[in-house]
Structures
1.
Amino acid sequence: MWSICRKEFNQFFSNLTGYIAIVLFLLVNGLFLFIFEESSILVFGYASLDKFFSLAPWVLLFLVPAISMRSFSDEYKSGTFETLRTKPLTAWQITLGKYLAILFIILLVIVPTFIYVFSIKTLSASGVIDSGGIAGSYLGLFLLSAVFAAISLCCSSFTGNAVLSFLISIAACLTLYVGFNALSKLPAFAGTTDYYLEMLGIDFHYQSISRGVLDTRDLVYFFSLIYLSLLITVKNIQQR
């Protein structure tokens, strides 16, 4: 499993793609947080990273599928999947190896944003920020990314076309992120099942954790989605 993880991780950073992904994530967030007047923290006037935690999921919605799209698609296309299956590895070990590699890459993308925390703490008039809320938001952001990664890996296991995998992943992640929330706003569900529909969406649980309060229901939701996505991935590669 760890050999697969190392291979995937090293392969991602074997060219400029990996470094460009990290730079683009930091650049886009930096522009919106400090440069563009409509969303700048400097103009907002409060030592808060709420704007970052509102924007980051949308950037990750495209970045994570881009990181994951070649995981299985390239293996199918190049014919190396057959060689991979001859090795003494179970389907779960192969899947978890690739999944862990994606998680490590996501961590490398998120960790540099800690500089934003020190930035707003320095800019704060009192030098005090809501550390608990920020810690909860970062945990929520990582769990959201982990779900996106599991879904994207699952989509990659369906096709040998990396571009198709990327597009399907974005559609699936977008549907789970805001689809149920949008559905709950329809007049037909108002006052009846709107709350339960909203609970099915990722955004509901992401916002809950971002408030700095760990709720078991949120953790169960995230881990259940991850497990279900990985289970479908395992079934797919076993059938092949």
Note: The chain has a mean pLDDT of 82.
2.
Amino acid sequence: MAQKSKYIALLIALTYFTYLLIEITIQYIPYHPDVAFLRIKQHYIDVPFFLTLFYVHVYTAIFSMVAGFTQFSETILKRWRRVHRYSGWFYIVIVLLFAAPSGLYIGIYANGGLSSQIAFILLALGWFAFTATALIKIRKHDYQSHRYFMMRSFSLALSAITLRAWKYVIVAIFEPRPMDVYIIVAWLGWILNLFVAELLVLRLKRNRRLKRTANAQKTK
């Protein structure tokens, strides 16, 4: 019961922040080169493919968030396996063909100089690599490894939310300069997510080992 309550609380929090992300995405509809975040990127507007790939990233990343939510529900996995499978494929296609490659390109032009650029490039590369590995694992029917890499992948997808959440917290507490905030959240927005994902993976692996040990003892 406690675990179910934690899951519901987490789902509510993720839903709320996803709603905020949708509000941000709506700002870029219709297509316009001088709106919201793009107002401070005007010196990159004429860079080949920048504006196009920026909008590709904005429009597709939100769908990866929604699809990702369905991947870690035991209820959906057990009762609606097709929903899990199709939404998983949708997530993988969105990330590998659109969201991660476009994120890599616009990361090259990130504000904050070299530090921020490296952070967003590593984020995009990690997102692509974890998602591609999850695809390889499921094609080999290695379901456990597939789950672990999907957890890592989705933790990076969540950076779209956590980056902004950390921004609000840091500004409210420390009131630093805007560019300093940008550099900090460029790293903090995904590294902590990945750290938490690794802790969850380690916990799942430990529980799996304990279960195997218990089953082996029962058969003796």
Note: The chain is about 80% helix and 0% strand.
3.
Amino acid sequence: MNLLAVETSTENCSAAVLCGNEVFSINEEAPQKHAELILPMCDKVLAQAGLEKQDLDGIVYGRGPGSFTGVRIAASTAQGLALALKLKCAGVVSLEALGMQALYGTDERYAVTAIDARMGEVYVAVYDKTGAYPKALLEPAVLKPEAAVLAVCRALGAHGAYGGGTGIDLLYRAGLNRNIIKRSQFPDGEFIVKLGAELFREGKTVDAAEALPLYVRDEVTWKKIPEQHRAKK
């Protein structure tokens, strides 16, 4: 299976390719530049893998939550590529990728992930990596740091965990157990594409028009491709 993944939900801009069993990825911390960087990064990582766009079997994207602009860039990039190439998409929650990064190379089972949501809040989730795909013990939510720490404690119980994301430092200051060691900072396309491959294997894919962001905040809206076209008329 050949998959291309894009992830732009945080300051990190990332593209990755799964070619058979091998993963190629590129990362650049470049706030405010994702829109201009992501397609050239896709071309570069495809070249590293020795693939053309026509060799792809699907598109994977980081759904968020994260920067509103960033998650829109990833979703619209995935929509455009999938529509042009007539491919299916799989959306990976960016907090899931952070969790799998935090647990990579360890025997730990649980991950606490948090992204700074600004406005004094964090996007937070807790995952159990047992099984083919991480299970959310605390579904992605946007909370004040103090409320997030309480929610994490309820979800984890007495279990140990590793942490990932820019919001972990905010949780430490709000009382999170510092034995939950932070091991990842930004979502990486490498883990987005790996998780996306499992979604493709399970048939959990969508058409281009349904490749939507995960905002968590209810007041944010997103228009699908047909709606975008109607709005321009």
Note: The CA atoms of residues 52 and 184 lie 31 Å apart.
